Amino acid sequence: MTVDKFVSNTTRELEVKGVSFFRTKISPNANENKINEILNDEEHTVKIQIKAKPEQGKANTEILKFFGKLFRCECQIIAGNTGSVKLVKVWR
After folding, report:
1. Model confidence band, residue 25 (pLDDT cutoffs 50, 70, 90)
2. Where is 66: in which H helix or E strand?
3. What was the pLDDT predicted at 5?
4. Strand, coil or helix: what is 82?
5. Is pTM, for the whole model, over 0.85?
6. Confidence at residue 31, expressed as pLDDT on a 0 to 100 scale
7. CA 20 and chain centroid, separation
8. Is 3-91 in CATH node 3.40.50.1970?
């Protein structure tokens, strides 16, 4: 799956169901916030770079801001608060 396809599918799911869940793998301390790729695993894990450091919840806050702005919605980390792999919920 491409990044554009992921964004399109998630946006459509938000419009139809009002909620979407996806797994992310985070790389903190990056130069910019961006989605690198969608892994070809069972969950279609979203690899994302985040500028923030992984300390005191800074990277988690940045992740939620990034996806909130991308999908114009509310976001929550459901699982993985202290690890690099997280389950994210987005909803309207």
Report:
1. very high
2. helix 58-71
3. 96
4. coil
5. yes
6. 96
7. 11
8. no
Q: How far apart are CA 74 and CA 84, in angstroms?
A: 21
Output the six-digit token pair for 1: 């799956």
Q: Are 76 and 68 in contact (CB under 8 A)?
A: no
The one-letter amino acid code at 21 reads F
Residue 20 burial (C-beta neighbours within 10 Å; 0-12, 13-18, 19+): buried
Helices 3-17, 58-71: crossing angle, 10 deg rounding: 70
CB atoms closer than 10 angstroms to residue 66: 20
Q: What is the pLDDT of residue 50?
A: 96
CA dist 51 and 1 (Å) reads: 24
pLDDT of 16 reads 96
Task: Quote the CA–CA distance of 5 and 84 in Å, as a whole number.
Answer: 23
